[in-house]
Amino acid sequence: MSERTNERGAFANAGSEPPGEDRTREPAKAADTPPRAGTPSRGRVLAPALARVTPGRRGWIAVAALLAVACYLPFQLVPFRVFQFTMVMVYAVALLGLNLLVGHAGQISLGHGAFFAVGAYTTAIMLDRWDLPHLATLPIAAAVAFALGLAFGLPAVRLRGLYLALVTLAIAIFLVPLLKRFESVTGGSMGLTLAKPAPPAWTGLAEDQWLYFLTLAVAVLAFLLAYGLLRSRVGRALHAVRDNEAAAEVMGVRLPFYKTLAFAWSAMFAGAAGCAYTWVIGFVSPDSFVVTLSITMLAGIVIGGLGSFSGPLLGGLFVMFVPSISQDVNDAAPGVIFGLLIIVVMYVAPTGLAGLAGRVTRSTKNILRKE
Amino acid sequence: MTGFLQQVIEGLGAGAIYASLALALVLIYQFTGIVNFAQGELAMFSTYIAWQFTAAGLPFWLALALALAVSFAGGMLIERVVIRPVEGAPELTVVIVTVGLFIFVNAAAGWIWTFLIKDFPNPFPGGALEAGGLSVGYSTLGVLAVVGVVMGLLYLLFQHTKIGLGMRAVAANPASARLVGIRVGWMLALGWGLAATVGAVSGTLVAPLLFLEPNMMGGVLIYAFAAATLGGFDSPGGAVAGGLIVGVAETLAGAYVGFIGSDLKVGVPLVIILFVLLLRPQGLFGRAVVERA
Amino acid sequence: MSAEGFLTISDLNAGYGDARVLHGVNLSVGRGEICAILGPNGAGKTTLMRALSGMVWVRGSIGFDGADLARRSPDTIARRGVAHVPEGRGTFMPLTVEENLRLGAFTRRGRGTVEADLERIYTYFPVLKTRLRQVAGSLSGGEQQMLAIGRALMSRPRLLLLDEPSLGLAPLVTRELFRIVRTVNEQERTTVVVVEQNAHLALGIAQQAHVLESGRIVLSGTADRILQDEKVVQSYLGYRV
């Protein structure tokens, strides 16, 4: 996997370039810093390193290089490895959505896997019942997930971050028995087995390579879409929501609107990823989408880097390879590693959460509160 | 009618378990303003410790007492080591840390004790109390009694001891609590210790009904969330009432709403959470909280 | 300026995070004195109080009866006999009046003396005795301020820090409060540092006064002298909250 290591470096470099768009943010206001005796400037302010939204000029060169390597890769690796990297991209697309929600809009979701499952099942059912061409399922799966995200986003926006986490967790837990229940459509516990998209003869590609390139295309599309979203007014509105809801509202950002939208988009990316998942695996069953998937995704994006451009890809690599490598040691090893890494990342490098330092906790507020 | 009452009794038995875990959640929420997503996993881990003691040949109640003591110390330790560094950090950060703790504790239990299910001894006799056509299992009665005792002890602690008063002061106004000389950090640790102990009780009540395995509390946690949301995250009494209501609602829905059946019962807490949050976010017994920006 | 220097602050810098609010403050308060801190909004008066009780970062030294309080935690400082009635009163809203008072004696042992102190507080603030079982959050602003001072006295403080006790209160209530503070000071020899917008009132009970501006002491002297200072009269005494 030495090839990959190089690219990871390339991506990391891309991330550390100056952002194409200058997003200066004030350091946390003095009054917001919890006063702690004897600690002048050290303290709770999460490192104010600004998360990179988009790569800079040199970053784009790195991205192009990465793409070139990505195109070369499937011709050099054994099919199993190609499959693994395909899955990395599937997860990266899903994490792109989660990053939008958690990293950029500052809302927490413990149910991202549910929307991933919605995309996967929408695709599976369309293939199973109506025999739609594979490519046609992608926009539909994304749209269905988007619509569901919108529907859940509407009540969700009224919730404080904590409660959104509760509700999304409950959704993720509820989904599995729900999928099992509607057996006639979903295939119940047995799931559905589907044909994978066949490589057209003119390409001369093997199935695994074709799936790889299809997924790569979806990933590139998704990254471009996310890039566009974040560069637009909308992206700035999301950051305003994350950094300070109250201030954002005062500045005229229509808070409920953008929070709902962030939720729906995040669901849409998850849906698209779920669609690619079904193409690649050719099989869906409720037990592939248990709540652990949602939690693993959150772990992936936190470790990959919240709010950063390369976070979803790094997160995808983590989600794919940490289990496959460490499972040999012990079944529980991936969990131990993920759990520890999440905590450590939140201590030392909560990139992308930087702006959240503006939100102060109750204890600080009480000290500073003027009644 | 008898059938209905019977269902209510079953529901109360289940509800008492949800109530105990909800109580643990509320204890921590009161002091720190955070919901501990790892609460269920800590309870599961405590249950394994109790199991380990019984497996070593100790009598059940002694094993339980030791496990509770270990849980108390462990809860305090976790607060000092894991939570302390993010104290005062944004809510999102703290939530993610507790999720990390969730994953870690779950996996650690799997590593130590494997993911194979284990039998956990039921401390209560089998059989049931029969009266007026109703049958109340001794184990249901036992669960209700244990939760009642826990509730009573917590009440005594908070209302009638100096340390309990100090803890309530910290929950009410940490800055001011410091100014009257209360060591707030230790009170927070104490709160985590208590929560872990109460959670351990809940885990040992669940384990005999299900099987002991690392993922056993996942489902219970969501019911406990519903219970705490319904009762109000800042109201211990509300959490217990909420737990009982959730338990009864779930059992009745499973029994009488044909569509729900036994498999979709887990949708009940989801519906309850959503309804409460949209209609009365502070819960039935909670104080309306000023929205923290 | 008193020679004993019961409380001696030297070269004190303090602030929040990167923002320094106090710049090299020096002042000294004698045992049993009442010292008033005056100054415009944002001068750093509240920060000075918070520095004294360890709520903000501090550089410099805070000598208090032979010990240095600088860089100690708020609870340690409270245990040393410093009672701080913070701006906004620091009431434990959901707790009862009696519980609030008992919390003032949290660091003390001995049940008997606590009961005696409760009685003593009721003689200062009879109204509190009629509301013992009431939730503190339901008290009026003036009653809450009395409760806050009562809570502080329950710790039998050697140094009482009052931050804007008159804030938001009716003039009559404020006058009553200051009368009680003076009584406490006379009867129990409690040293008091009071931050106050209402300079007239504060100077009425204080022996010493210091004027703080932009984090520096710009004027110090006896209360009488400050009262005669034209600049202060113009700047602060004309301005009544």
Automatic annotation (TrEMBL), chain A:
Q: Which domain of life is it from?
A: Bacteria
Gene Ontology MF terms: branched-chain amino acid transmembrane transporter activity
Q: Where is the composition biased (Basic and acidic residues)?
A: 20-29
Q: Which PANTHER family match?
A: HIGH-AFFINITY BRANCHED-CHAIN AMINO ACID TRANSPORT SYSTEM PERMEASE, HIGH-AFFINITY BRANCHED-CHAIN AMINO ACID TRANSPORT SYSTEM PERMEASE PROTEIN LIVM
This chain's protein is named Branched-chain amino acid ABC transporter permease
Q: Where is this region: Disordered?
A: 1-42
Q: Where in the cell is it found?
A: Cell membrane
Extract the InterPro entries matched here: ABC_transp_permease, LivM-like
**Organism encoding this protein:** Planobispora longispora
Q: Which GO terms describe its cellular component?
A: plasma membrane
Asked if Manganese is a keyword of the record, the answer is no
Q: Name one Pfam family in it.
A: BPD_transp_2
State which residue ranges cross the membrane.
Answer: 59-77, 83-102, 109-127, 133-154, 161-179, 210-230, 261-282, 336-360
TrEMBL record, chain B:
Alphabetized Pfam families for the sequence: BPD_transp_2
Instruction: Extract the PANTHER family matched here.
Output: ABC TRANSPORTER PERMEASE PROTEIN, BRANCHED-CHAIN AMINO ACID TRANSPORT SYSTEM PERMEASE PROTEIN LIVH
Membrane-traversing stretches: 12-38, 58-82, 94-116, 136-158, 186-210, 216-233, 240-260, 266-290
The protein here is known as Branched-chain amino acid ABC transporter permease
In what way does this protein cross or attach to the membrane? Answer: Multi-pass membrane protein
Keywords, comma-separated and alphabetical: Amino-acid transport, Cell membrane, Membrane, Transmembrane, Transmembrane helix, Transport
GO-annotated cellular components: plasma membrane
What is one process in the GO biological process aspect for this record? Answer: amino acid transport
- Entry's localization field: Cell membrane
Q: Which family does it belong to?
A: Belongs to the binding-protein-dependent transport system permease family. LivHM subfamily.
Q: Which GO terms describe its molecular function?
A: transmembrane transporter activity
Q: Does the keyword DNA repair apply?
A: no
Automatic annotation (TrEMBL), chain C:
* Every ABC transporter domain range: 7-239
Q: Which UniProt keywords apply?
A: Amino-acid transport, ATP-binding, Nucleotide-binding, Transport
| InterPro entries on file | AAA+_ATPase, ABC_transporter-like_ATP-bd, ABC_transporter-like_CS, BCAA_Transport_ATP-bd_LivF, P-loop_NTPase
Domain of life according to the entry: Bacteria
What is one Gene Ontology biological process annotated in the Swiss-Prot or TrEMBL record? L-amino acid transport
Q: Which Pfam families match?
A: ABC_tran
| Stretches assigned to coiled coil | none
Q: Does the keyword Nucleotide-binding apply?
A: yes
A GO molecular-function descriptor? ATP binding
The answer, when asked if Glycoprotein is one of the entry's keywords, is no
Q: Into which family does the record put it? A: Belongs to the ABC transporter superfamily.
Q: What is this protein called?
A: ABC transporter ATP-binding protein
What is the organism field in this record?
Planobispora longispora
